[in-house]
Amino acid sequence: LGLNIITLVTLLITLTPTLIKSEESINVLLPISLNLTVLTDPFSISAASQDFGNITDETPGAVLCPSSSVEVSRLLRFASGEFSYGEDATGPSPGFKVAARGQGHSLRGQASAPGGIVVNMTCLAKAAKPAAVVVSADGTYADVAAGTMWVEVLETAVERGVSPVTWTDYLYLSVGGTLSNAGIGGQTFRHGPQISNVHELDVITGKGEMMTCSPKLNTELFYGVLGGLGQFGIITRARIALDHAPKRVKWLRILYNDFSDFTRDQERLISMVNDIRVDFLEGQLMMSNGFVDTSFFPLSDQTRVASLVNDHRIIYVLEVAKYYDTTTLPIINQVIDMLTRTLGFIPGFMFMRDVPYFDFLNRVRNEEDKLRSLGLWEVPHPWLNIFVPRSRIQDFHDGIIKGLLLNQTSTSGVTLFYPTNRNKWNNRMSAMIPDEDVFYVIGLLHSAGGSQNWEELDNLNDKIIHFCDTSGIKIKEYLMHYTRKEDWVQHFGPKWGDFLRRKIMFDPKKLLSPGQDIFS
Ligand code: FAD
Question: Are residues 230 and 149 in the same domain?
Fold first, then answer.
């Protein structure tokens, strides 16, 4: 009798489902024997429904705040039907999708899981043992919990005098989030994107398998996951390459009124391989029909910079940086002099700041603080990020920048404009770039609000894409969101077959990152 009661109680526990209801009454059923606690309170649900883009609102059924990778594996084993109740026992069937969420800085619900379960990767990073960021004894790499923000990686690494080599402009993004896209910025031309600087990953596939992968081990998974938009597995740990961390940075903004001079100098600087080459290179446009931010420049020069923009309607800003520390201190000014002597900028319009390395990398944080204080951070962001082949950059400039943007009554947000090198990208990775040695990163970082609504800005984006299509400019979008399968097929082009094959290998039930809308 004793044995029967125990069996009965065990069976009952196994069979009793937890019923979780979301606001939209989409149910997520988890068996108690999974031993997972999920959050369904309004705050957790609302936070997981939105993202930085502030355009979509996708309600998940629940949020998992895992304390170990094993919990994530268990969740995915159940969701994919790999979880066994035992021979005679039955329980709820899964019917939900799963999305990892880092910092939710996606633009169009890419980190959402409507009606499913969002895995809060910050919880996993907080629970990481012995720490979320562990620098190797020789300082050549760090093992990082994927929910960690890059700013935290930087903080820990610089204490040991080392640093990752390649960065995004903004550091409050999770390691897993940027590795699922590419992670690009002003060091990409020299060191490649962040996905090119990873030695090894721990990944939990859509079937719940926990796998380690690298360029030598489980290579299909490794290359698939890098730039893989969360489709093949949830990254839990990344081994990131490190190098010496410089102490200080000479940070320059140099102004041009001639587009050919601007791009010629940018391209020359990214092709240099000698000791005086720059460590960072980007570019921006200042347009008279937009907000002209002169805060970088000395107070005494701000008015003449603003007048320059007014007079020319558009000014091209070359942004470069050169790192230095005590050993290079005596010659850094000579190096800067050599670097800038041959550049074709407007005489008298080169400005330099001298800042600590950390502050340089964390520069966008100040912009965030400013925008937050003005109530302009939590507004819709219909950003358009594209890669444009170098051979067509003049056509893009004439048609889009001069022909379209300068003729708008107003423009909003920052416009990034800089070239980078293709040879720093590995074609086996999922990320897509144009098929040319040099291509430009164009970021139209629109902010809606005030007189402009996001739909108008979205229409503008459509016009830009349409112009490129009809002019035969073979762009690739970055951080894109397509809803039609044919657009994804076109985006991946020759790599679509590999993408699909890897999906079937690692996430055959198509559970992961449904917010990307690739397989739904
Ligand atoms: P989330 O939005 O949380 O997730 C993005 C996608 O990755 C989702 O599909 C999600 O399911 C998936 N994902 C998240 N974590 C994991 C994981 N551990 N394993 C598997 N899949 C996962 N990008 C650049 O390249 N360069 C920049 O300079 C840059 N600057 C930015 C500045 C700002 C202010 C913002 C808002 C974004 C910027 N981005 C930049 C874009 C950014 O890299 C992506 O939006 C990135 O996804 C953000 O990381 P996240 O942690 O917020 O990801």
Answer: yes
Q: Predicted ipTM?
A: 0.99
- Residues 428 and 195: beta-carbon distance below 8 Å: no
Query: Could you tell me the distance, in angstroms and rounded to a whole number, from the CA of residue 360 to the centre of ligand 1?
Result: 21
Q: What is the pLDDT of residues 396-423, one digit of tens each?
A: 999 999 999 999 988 888 999 999 999 9
And the tokens for 245? Answer: 């961390």
Question: What residue numbers bound the domain in which 132 lies?
Answer: 125-245
**Helix 485-492 with 496-506: angle, nearest 10 deg:** 110
CB contact at 8 A, 73 and 204: yes
pTM for the model stands at: 0.94
Kindly name the residue from 71, 152, 202, 282 that is annotated as catalytic: 282
State if residue 246 touches ligand 1 by the CB under 6 angstroms criterion. no
Catalytic residue among 51, 71, 105, 143: 105
Return the amino acid letter for 475. Answer: I
Domain presence at residue 388: yes
Contact 399, 467 (CB under 8 A): yes
CA distance 176 to 150: 10
In a domain, 485, yes or no: no
